[in-house]
Amino acid sequence: MENTLSYARAQDQVDPLRGYRDQFYFPQHNGKDVLYFCGNSLGLQPKGVEKALLDELEQWRTYGVEGHFKGEMPWMYYHKFLARQTAHIAGAKEEEVVVMNTLTTNLHLMMVSFYRPTKERFKIIMEAGAFPSDQYAVESQVRFHGFDPETAIVEIAPRDGEDHLQTEDIIRTIKEQGPSAALILFGGVNYYTGQFFDLPAIVREGHHAGACVGFDLAHAAGNLPLQLHDWGADFAVWCSYKYLNSGPGGPSGVFVHQRHHLNLDLPRFAGWWGHDEAQRFLMKKGFHPMSGAAGWQLSNAQIFPMAAHKASLDLFEQAGMENLREKSLRLTAYLEFIIDELNRKGHQYHILTPRDPAQRGCQLSLLIGNHGRELFNYLTDHGVICDWREPNVIRLAPVPMYNSFEDIWLLGEKLRVYSGK
Predict the structure, then answer these.
(1) What is the torsion angle, in degrees rounded to the nearest 10, for the CA atoms of residue 397, residue 401, residue 404 and residue 408?
(2) Helix, strand or coil for residue 192?
(3) How many CB atoms lie under 10 A from the CB of residue 275?
(4) CB under 8 Å to 408, separation ≥6 — which residues?
(5) Does the structural domain 53-318 have CATH classification 3.40.50.1000?
(6) pLDDT at res. 370
(7) Closest by CA position to 235, among listed 207, 209, 208
(8) Residues 6 or more apart from 362 whose CB is under 8 A from it?
(9) Neighbours of 239 (CB within 10 A)
(10) What is the largest CA-CA distance in the chain?
(11) pTM of the entire structure?
């Protein structure tokens, strides 16, 4: 690698995915595209979203309520039009996934089914420093079942002096807590450090201990290739507005492993749209769930957010997650290389994220000293959109769908000239 503009441009020239950058709108700064490294918080808008929304407005204008049954993609079946592409993102079978609701709502719905505490087995094991929404959801579920979060929630923290978790510590904790563990719930990628956990190992050990295993993949879906079916997770949830570029408040995805699909004794909160499609309009009492993850639906599809989501999923299908991951590895390695070179020249940008590419996606979290907020403001004022997390971390995410090697080189130049080192 070389920390030169010519090298960065040469890499972009041979990038087979370079054309996808033109499929997105970039915010402007002084008449130029910003350097956008915040796809781990909100992805850019695909240019196809406008047409997708206009198409659904036309559907509504033309058919009114009959739009549920007429047109190219009738609203009655809209979730089905997302299933194949969603299954590819999740590494699942089509019947194991459904797009519905939003992330934390779906997390609660999954915990209704898969957190079934007893007097002897009631604990939830999760990573320390999980995203606050997950912490709040877990705390409230524990209290709802009559347990004390202080004793029912087991959080695994990094060792003293280390920035991220060791897989062996996760496994050891599951083994130690196994007889009292009801649920293992991990984020796929920790939002703060950017660590990608060994999800297959967590599933194996969690099931061996007799617990259910679920994942919040908010920072993993669309970022890393996933194999939820083969890994055997009981459930997973994720949002679509980060790496999946589906707009603020975009719909959530849900995975429920097929081994649970025929278990009618599994408790769930039921709704009309999860009821057997063939009997739905008979309007009778008695809930009969649709087969697969679709049986966990509550309400009819959010058509406009899902239309935006479909426009983004089309791009993922064209590009391919494997191809995006290959570029992501190269982009993130280049950012790491440039930051290391800056540090050799006297800067102090400590990378919190694991150095092992297999343990991270495209996010690098930088631990900054006392001038962290000043640096963040400087970057913002100079056309860089990134992410600040208290107390002193800047998150940078070179997204392979639309970021370039030149973006990274230009970011490095702004970090180099910053005078507050």
Answers:
(1) 0
(2) coil
(3) 21
(4) 8, 331, 334, 335, 338, 398
(5) no
(6) 83
(7) 207
(8) 39, 40, 223, 243, 328, 331, 332, 397, 398, 399, 400
(9) 24
(10) 72
(11) 0.96
DSSP letters, 284-340, are -SS--BPSSGGGG--S---HHHHHHHHHHHHHHHHH-HHHHHHHHHHHHHHHHHHHH
CA-to-CA separations, 288 to 101, 278, 298, in angstroms, rounded: 20, 10, 13
Domain positions in the chain: 5-33+321-417, 53-318
> Residue 72 carries which side chain, given as an amino acid letter?
E
Residue 421 has pLDDT above 80, yes or no: no
CATH number of 5-33+321-417: 3.90.1150.10
The identity of residue 11, as a single letter, is Q
Name residue, tokens 């097929």: 258
Q: Which two tokens stand for residue 348?
A: 């102090």
pLDDT of residue 419: 59
Q: Is 124 exposed, middle or buried (0-12, 13-18, 19+ CB in 10 A)?
A: buried
Residue 197: other Cβ atoms inside 10 A: 20
